């Protein structure tokens, strides 16, 4: 005698005793009633209408009775099936939890291998960003898994240990991505000729660092890198305006040169680092004073009878 299976599927109400025999008998009785009444009422004007109405009532009563029987049987079967489903669902989680714990162990080993390969091969920054995203996916899933009530103590301990390791990997690869991206973009900015291209590329480097700072705001390495990029942006702006001032002074446009030096002084005093601010500001101020002296000498030597509208432009 075979063992009873541990779980049976719920009985389908459609598999209840067939209604074909009952409804066939009802149809036969209805047809017989129709012909009998038609024969009896032949003297009436419309005997078929009365006979058809009586036969229809018989079929309606039979169908209603069948529906009531089906509903009653369904209510009897449903509680038993519900208990079977509930018992089955309560037996499943332990096996499912054990399988999921094993899957997270495999995922941890795969992440560690990818991390080691990326560090050994000096992979491009995007590879480190992808590993960071994979670590984030692992941590989200592991946090949900730790909330399961049926997780064994051994599996919970192993999962928490994996979370700590993945958190360390996540931080390492985010910092590596930010550092490598900022270094590459800053080097690219240094090769640009136009000022707006320099600033645009340097700002992209700054965005990478700021994105990492949102995750690890207390990381000093990121703060140092951000300061270095900002200093580069400031020095690029100051150098741009100083170069324009020198060109104007060389051409004898002293007033224009003074204005360009003032622009350079504005960016230096607003964004420049403290250690370079005073030295740079002093040099630019000295250049402005020399240009003012030249401009005064130029105006004094201009012949009053000539047009002086372009003097010291």
Helices and strands, with pairings:
Blueprint: H1 20-40, H2 47-91, H3 93-120, H4 125-146, H5 153-191, H6 195-215, H7 220-250, H8 254-271, H9 274-301
Radius of gyration: 44 Å
Average pLDDT over all residues: 78
Topology pattern, helix = H, strand = E: HHHHHHHHH
Report strand %: under 5%
Per DSSP E runs of 2 or more residues, the count of β-strands stands at 0
Question: What is the general shape?
Answer: elongated
Task: Detail the poorly predicted runs.
Answer: 1-17, 81-98, 305-310
Total number of helices? 9
Q: What characterizes the major β-sheet?
A: none
Helicity, as a percent range: over 70%
Distance between the termini: 113 Å
Helix/strand-derived category reads mainly alpha
Quick synopsis:
Helices cover 81% and strands 0% of the residues.
């Amino acid at each position: 005698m075979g063992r009873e299976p541990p779980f049976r599927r719920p009985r389908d109400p459609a598999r209840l005793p067939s209604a074909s025999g009952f409804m066939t008998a009802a149809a036969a009785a209805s047809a017989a009633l129709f012909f009998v009444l038609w024969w009896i009422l032949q003297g009436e004007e419309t005997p078929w209408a009365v006979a058809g109405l009586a036969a229809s009532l018989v079929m309606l009563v039979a169908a209603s009775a069948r529906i009531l029987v089906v509903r009653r049987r369904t209510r009897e079967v449903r509680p038993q099936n519900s208990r079977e489903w509930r018992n089955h669902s309560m037996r499943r989680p332990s096996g499912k939890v054990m399988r999921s714990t094993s899957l997270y162990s495999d995922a941890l080993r795969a992440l560690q291998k990818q991390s080691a390969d990326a560090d050994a091969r000096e992979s491009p920054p995007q590879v480190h960003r992808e590993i960071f995203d994979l670590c984030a996916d692992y941590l989200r899933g592991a946090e949900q898994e730790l909330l399961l009530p049926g997780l064994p103590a051994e599996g919970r301990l192993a999962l928490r240990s994996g979370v700590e390791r993945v958190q360390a990997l996540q931080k390492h690869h985010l910092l590596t991505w930010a550092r490598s991206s900022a270094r590459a973009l800053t080097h690219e900015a240094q090769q640009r000729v136009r000022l707006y291209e320099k600033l645009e590329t340097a700002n992209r480097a700054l965005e990478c660092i700021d994105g990492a700072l949102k995750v690890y705001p207390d990381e000093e390495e990121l703060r140092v890198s951000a300061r270095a990029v900002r200093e580069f942006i400031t020095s690029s702006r100051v150098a741009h305006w100083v170069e324009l001032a020198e060109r104007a002074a060389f051409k004898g446009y002293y007033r224009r040169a003074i204005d360009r030096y003032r622009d350079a002084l504005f960016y230096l005093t607003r964004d420049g680092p403290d250690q370079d601010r005073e030295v740079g500001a002093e040099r630019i101020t000295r250049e402005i004073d020399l240009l003012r002296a030249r401009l005064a000498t130029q105006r004094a030597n201009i012949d009053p009878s000539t047009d002086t509208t372009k003097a010291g432009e």
